[in-house]
Amino acid sequence: MKHVISTMLAAALLAGGAAKAQAQPANPLDKVPDKMPFATPYGPPISLQQAQSVIQAAENEATKHGWPENFAVVDSGANLVAFVRMDGSLLASIAIAQHKARTAVLFRRPTRAFEDAVQRSGYNYVLSLDGAIASRGGVLLIEDGKIIGAIGCSGGTGSQDEAICTAAAATINK
Question: What local confidence, expressed as pLDDT, does residue 51 receive?
């Protein structure tokens, strides 16, 4: 009797799995876009003076809210140009801030795009992309329509990091 019940249960599970497989919609990743997404061209590297002004804007925004953070600015080649660690900021966020800035430049998009891909769309393959970080707080710095660098902020929540980066990037992105 146990054998009959287990056979019936296995058959029901297989039938349910087949029905579920047939009911799934087409893979949205199979859609071929007309234009290349995230195609902002790379420009000349950000200057040290510009990078320092972006960092200062980030520090001012973080101080205004009482959020101790780490800030990294990289150039259009993803090389570190400037970095500041506020007193009391999370030590692990030193590397994370730099990683966010590099990811934004290397993939020509804010790191929020990766977070959204995983959290909202379930595109977990994003987690396997070499050099990507799926955490908001990496924002591009664009001058004259070209990427000159990016800022990465880390130490708070993702929304805090992103708010600081966005405010700081506004000094360049006009």
Answer: 98
Each residue of 101-113: b (16+ CB within 10 Å) or e?
Answer: bbbbbbbbbbbbb
CATH of the domain spanning 48-169, picked from 3.60.21.10, 3.30.450.150, 3.30.590.10, 3.40.50.620: 3.30.450.150
Q: Residues 60-101: pLDDT tens digits?
A: 999 999 999 999 999 999 999 999 999 999 999 999 999 999
98: buried, middle or exposed (CB in 10 Å: 19+, 13-18, 0-12)?
buried
**CA 132 to CA 55: how far, in whole Å?**
22
For the CA atoms of 32, 34, 39, 41, the dihedral, rounded to the nearest 10 degrees, stands at 140
Q: Is the dihedral of CA 154, 54, 75, 147 positive or negative?
A: positive
Rounded to whole angstroms, the Cα distance separating 163 from 65 reads 11
